[in-house]
Design brief:
13 strands, globular, binds acetyl coenzyme *A, four-stranded mixed β-sheet
């Protein structure tokens, strides 16, 4: 038995922020942002929270799967922007759904968070500790951006995506994941202060900082390698895959990965044009987009891949 996805859902905040709007509040332009990243607009929270977006995405995934909240025995939320240090977003979702039989916890693996959650639940399923689970990737990244740093804040958005998985034959066929903490400095948010009376720390720089070129080099090297490893484990070739659903960091990264795999860009669906980079939420939002557009048939083989802060990466091959 492995984890098979049986329903998807997503939820984006109501407010849409276009590149043109950003150009009225900072020195940037639609031309600069869209030509370098492919992003045209993103959704940002006003009233919504990481938990409220997660809850709605989760409800939609459960409705599509035809699963009642009481049937869930696990809820995992991949996020780096939970509303609180504790309780976790997953516990908030559990309470909101009334999923009284579920164990709930968050995973922080930045943009690989949804993949790490899927691989974790797969391990629980394989050892018989879980049968039906709700996985969510959710972020309110707008809260941790420096809106005076145009080279970073224009890239990101807020939102949540979800998938219901169940222990079945098939499903998750092969996976690869990894971390490189030495490179963590290239994409960091050191937003914690020490409240200990014995330690007088200065307030840390509390926003997201990124070395874009180092992150680009990491992504275009590690992601194709990770995909090749997964294909090799499954005994498949790149052309056997119907769609590659990659973390939506940047169109240039996706184009470079497609080129390295020698696969047409048509097999790489895109949501970053209207969502921006939503970190852990990117992959499940894109999966829900593709699913709801009717682009997936039973038996299709799909690669999911997330990569980012940590640095971390996770790739898996699933059968729909
Ligand atoms: N609008 C206008 N000008 C800008 C903006 C902006 N929003 N941001 C930066 N600039 C300017 C800079 O000030 C600089 O000007 P200067 O030459 O006068 O000094 C110039 O544009 C070039 O800046 P760079 O930072 O060198 O821009 P670069 O061409 O490297 O593009 C980008 C930046 C798009 C982030 C690129 O590095 C990249 O694609 N990186 C990949 C990493 C990525 O996508 N990260 C996303 C998050 S990480 C993740 O999810 C894995």
């Amino acid at each position: 038995m492995t984890a098979r996805i049986i329903g998807t859902g997503s939820c984006l905040p109501e407010a849409i922020v276009t590149n043109d709007y950003l150009s009225t509040i900072m020195d940037t332009s639609d031309e600069w942002i869209s030509s370098r990243t492919g992003i045209k607009e993103r959704h940002l929270v006003k009233e919504e929270t990481t938990a409220s977006l997660s809850l709605e995405a989760g409800r939609r995934a459960l409705a599509e799967a035809g699963v009642a909240p009481e049937e869930l025995d696990m809820i995992i939320v991949g996020t780096l922007t939970g509303d609180y240090i504790t309780p976790s977003t997953a516990c908030e979702v559990q309470a909101g759904l009334g999923a009284v039989n579920a164990v709930a916890f968050d995973i922080n693996a930045a943009c690989a968070g949804f993949l790490f959650s899927l691989h974790t639940v797969n391990a629980y399923i394989q050892c018989g500790m879980c049968r039906t689970a709700l996985l969510i990737g959710a972020e309110t990244l707008s809260r941790i951006m420096d809106w005076g740093d145009r080279s970073t804040c224009v890239l990101f958005g807020d939102g949540a995506g979800a998938a219901v998985v169940q222990a079945q034959e098939g499903g998750l066929i092969a996976y690869d994941q990894g971390s490189d903490g030495e490179k963590g400095k290239y994409l960091a948010c050191r937003n914690r202060t020490n409240n200990n009376p014995l330690v007088q720390t200065e307030k840390n720089y509390s926003y997201t900082q990124m070395d874009g070129q180092e992150v680009y080099k990491f992504a275009v090297t590690y992601v194709p390698n990770s995909i090749h490893k997964v294909l090799e484990k499954a005994g498949l070739q790149p052309e056997d895959i119907k769609y590659y659903l990659l973390h939506q960091a940047n169109l240039r990264i996706i184009q470079a990965v497609a080129k390295r795999l020698k696969i047409s860009l048509d097999r790489f669906p895109i949501s970053l044009d209207h969502c921006g980079n939503v970190s852990a939420a990117s992959v499940p939002i894109l999966l829900d987009d593709v699913n709801r557009k009717g682009m997936l048939q039973k038996g299709d083989k799909i690669i999911l891949s997330g990569f980012g802060g940590g640095l971390t990466w996770g790739t898996c091959l699933i059968e729909w």
